[in-house]
Design brief:
The chain has one domain (about 5-105): OB fold (Dihydrolipoamide Acetyltransferase, E2P) (Beta Barrel), CATH 2.40.50. Helices cover about 25% and strands about 25% of the residues. The protein has helices at about 10-15, 80-85, 90, 105-115, 120-135; strands at about 5, 20-25, 25-30, 30, 50, 55-60, 65-70, 75-80, 100-105. It comes from Balaeniceps rex (Shoebill).
Length: about 140
């Protein structure tokens, strides 16, 4: 029932051979995802995220900056602080050690969320259509 937020295979940071310069969990002057403190079974203190809530900003060495959004409503359980000291694992192991955050969706919403997910084949078809329409 948890959701692990990672970079998609098609994300520009994973495609173009860019180098990640920095990762910043400071979203605004008053909001840092690093200040998220969760305790207990009911996950008290967890920051609540909407689909459009920014999780972090990633800067690449060529000056481009990417804001990574939650894409899901729920409580922020954990951010991956390991990528702060070793940003390369975001690119080297994006679906395992290089995850960005862990989000716990509301129990009532978790079923509709998982039903709306694409299979790997459907995701690849969407990417293919995007590629064909842009070329």
């Amino acid at each position: 029932r948890i959701c692990v937020i990672t970079l998609a295979e098609a994300h520009p940071l994973l495609q173009s051979g860019k180098t990640i310069k920095s990762i910043n969990y400071q979203i605004s002057a008053n909001c840092s995802r690093l200040q998220n403190k969760v305790s207990g079974k009911s996950k008290r203190g967890a920051q609540f995220l909407t689909e459009l809530a920014p999780l972090c900003r990633i800067s690449s060495s060529d000056g481009d900056e990417y804001t990574i959004y939650s894409c899901i409503r729920g409580r922020l359980i954990e951010v991956n602080e390991n990528i702060l000291s070793n940003p390369a694992i975001l690119q080297e192991k994006p679906s395992t050690e290089g995850y960005i955050a862990v989000v716990l969706p509301k129990f009532e919403e978790s079923k509709s969320i998982t039903q709306g997910l694409l299979t790997q084949k459907e995701y690849e078809e969407v990417l293919l259509k995007r590629l064909n329409s842009s070329s």
